[in-house]
UniProtKB/TrEMBL annotation:
Keywords: Coiled coil, GTP-binding, Hydrolase, Immunity, Innate immunity, Nucleotide-binding
Organism: Oncorhynchus mykiss (Rainbow trout)
Protein name: GB1/RHD3-type G domain-containing protein
Lineage: Eukaryota, Metazoa, Chordata, Craniata, Vertebrata
Protein family according to the UniProt entry: Belongs to the TRAFAC class dynamin-like GTPase superfamily. GB1/RHD3 GTPase family.
A biological process term (GO) from this entry: innate immune response
Length: 610
């Protein structure tokens, strides 16, 4: 993408997606790292994003008091350090812009930035004092503007913990910072400066509760916090041409902090994930943006669980289509060779099916009841049935054409009465046996070779009997012997055709058995992979919560630390319940698949016996 484009338009107080930007995301198949910047208007957010894009210009910079960015703008660039990843930069409309008049969408834009990001950069100017913290008022409303789960049971309980599990990393950038980084004469880091600003006060008065409330929200929702303090990049007189200034003209200390900030974002910002730990591609991000914005436009509250389920349905259907396309492409080469024997076709089928399943598994997620994997299996079965039929038809066509060509001279002899003479039956048998011998010697006849030959012999039976009976050179006894010999040959050919059909059926039954075992194995591995992702997600949340409790104890907030300890125990219990329920669901699904497999095997055995 050469330059930023508007992703979410804020027009007349209404939010809507820009189709062109969504189309771009839909074509982006790489995993994405999403970095959003939010903050008050005219605080230099766009400059930071241009710096992350490693461009001197791109996002609009303004030199006046007017806000330049409206809605949410997007710039997709190759990730500087992660191969085959895209860095998606989201520059948001400045919060608190007096020219908007109606600021009702500020909270929604802030919420969208959180929902879409891997890392959220909050940009402010001056210092992190009480006034700066208070300007992050939108954090207060997050529980009213974002829902993690669709269920309303115990909705309020543990919301902070739920949010921290899915919220982005939080980076506070302070621009034009002029103070000394020290407390009580002791030098501190920017991170310590931020944590000191978010410290809670002891006490229970309304004033103290009000002071602590927003800080608790920030600490609960964003357990992973980082701070950068930027000195002024240049003199006030030069600020209007900041985007056109050479790097060398900027303050050395500003350049140093800028480079450190960019390096941190590039190295520490993780891939965008959703509930379950599934990483997103640009296409999936496009679905999320559309779902969230449309939900807000309807006056509803975005729900992470619902959005992910809707996206999973779309992605899983796309995974089915992709898997089937992989299978079809894999079968093109063998299809060009039709007719082929059943083993060659089966080997190609199983190999292509394996590749198709891998493609499906790579893209699918949250296919909890195996609905879409079953859909892929059924689609492959239908397509393979058609291919096996095409191969049969090709074999039949080739074999019939071959016999027609080989028997042309004998058919001409019949018309000319060549065999209607004494000894004609012997001549007819010689020609007939030569046809069969040449037919058998012809390679690559396919799966209906014996069946077509059987039909050919049956078609010639009446003709052969007529010549036999008319041959005056043979005695009645000899005619009887020849008739028995012909009947025996026809029965042997009938058995050969039956063996051919049975061999094909057995091989296809074996294919089904291998396929079923493969699907079960893939399903188990996918379930285990998603279970591990969920547990890793939970472990990160738990570690952060326990660290927060430790910090509270160290700062003397024993009562709050005890409450958090109880919350941690509740988190552990709920996680165990969810794991047990998930294990039961997985077991039920695998048992169902095993039952279907056994039932199918019995049906196949019955068909073989028949």
């Amino acid at each position: 993408m050469d330059s930023p484009m508007c992703l979410v338009k804020n027009a007349d107080g209404e939010l809507c997606v820009e189709p062109e930007a969504i189309d771009y995301l839909m074509g982006l198949k790489q995993n994405v790292v999403v970095v959003s910047v939010v903050g008050l208007y005219r605080t230099g957010k766009s400059y930071l994003m241009n710096k992350l894009a490693q461009k001197r210009s791109g996002f609009a910079l303004g030199a006046t008091i007017q806000s330049k960015t409206k809605g949410i703008w997007m710039w997709c660039v190759p990730h500087p350090e992660k191969t085959d990843h895209t860095l998606v930069l989201l520059d948001t409309e400045g919060l608190g812009d007096v020219e908007k008049g109606d600021s009702k969408n500020d909270a929604w834009i802030f919420s969208l930035a959180i929902l879409l990001s891997s890392t959220l950069v909050y940009n402010s100017r001056g210092t992190i004092d009480n006034d700066a913290v208070e300007k992050l008022q939108y954090v207060n409303d997050l529980t009213e503007r974002i829902k993690v789960k669709s269920s309303t049971v115990d909705e309020e309980e543990g919301e902070g913990t739920q949010f921290m599990q899915f919220f982005p990393n939080f980076v506070w950038t302070v621009r034009d910072f002029t103070l000394q980084l020290e407390i009580d004469g002791r030098e501190i880091t920017p991170d310590q400066y931020l944590e000191n600003s978010l410290q809670l006060k002891k006490g229970t008065s309304k004033k103290i509760n009000d002071y602590n409330f927003l800080r608790e929200c920030i600490r609960n929702f964003f357990p992973s916090r980082k701070c950068f303090v930027f000195p002024s990049p240049t003199t006030p007189d030069n600020m209007h041409r900041l985007d056109s200034m050479d790097e060398a003209e900027l303050s050395g200390s500003f350049r140093e902090v800028s480079d450190t900030f960019c390096r941190f974002i590039f190295q520490e910002s993780r891939m965008k994930t959703v509930i379950g730990g599934h990483t997103l591609t640009g296409e999936m991000l496009g679905h999320l943006v559309t779902t969230y914005v449309e939900t807000i436009a309807k006056g509803n509250v975005p729900c992470l669980e619902n959005a992910v389920l809707a996206m999973a349905k779309i992605e899983n259907q796309a995974a089915v289509n992709e898997g089937l396309a992989v299978y079809q492409k894999g079968m093109e080469d063998v299809k060009a060779l039709f007719p082929v024997d059943v083993n060659q076709l089966s080997e190609n089928h199983l190999q292509s099916e394996t590749q198709a399943t891998k493609a499906f598994m790579k893209r699918s997620f949250k296919d909890d009841n195996g609905e879409f994997l079953k859909a892929l299996a059924e689609a492959i079965v239908n397509h393979s049935d058609d291919l096996f039929k095409q191969n049969k038809d090709a074999s039949e066509k080739k074999c019939k054409a071959l016999l027609e060509n080989l028997s042309a001279l004998m058919d001409q002899g019949m018309k000319e009465g060549t065999y209607a003479t004494p000894g004609g039956y012997g001549l007819y048998c010689n020609h007939h046996d030569n046809i069969v011998a040449q037919y058998r010697a012809e390679p690559n006849k396919g799966v209906r070779a014996e069946e077509v030959l059987e039909q050919f012999l049956k078609d010639k039976s009446a003709e052969s009997s007529s010549i036999l009976q008319a041959d005056k050179k043979l005695t009645e006894k000899e005619k009887q012997i020849q008739a028995e010999k012909k009947k025996t040959a026809e029965l042997e050919q009938e058995k050969a055709a039956f063996r051919e059909q049975q061999a094909e059926m057995k091989r296809r039954i074996e294919n089904n058995r291998i396929s079923q075992e493969k699907y079960l194995k893939e399903m188990k591995e996918k379930m285990e992979e998603e279970r591990k992702q969920q547990q890793q997600e939970f472990n990160r949340t738990l570690e952060r919560r326990m660290q927060e409790q430790k910090d509270l104890l160290e700062k003397g907030h024993k009562e709050k630390a005890d409450l958090m300890r109880q919350e941690i125990e509740e988190i552990k219990r709920n996680n165990q319940l969810e794991r047990d329920a998930s294990t039961q669901n997985q077991k039920a699904l695998l048992d169902e698949c095993n039952t279907l497999k056994c039932s199918k095997a019995k049906q196949d055995d019955s068909c073989t016996l028949l």
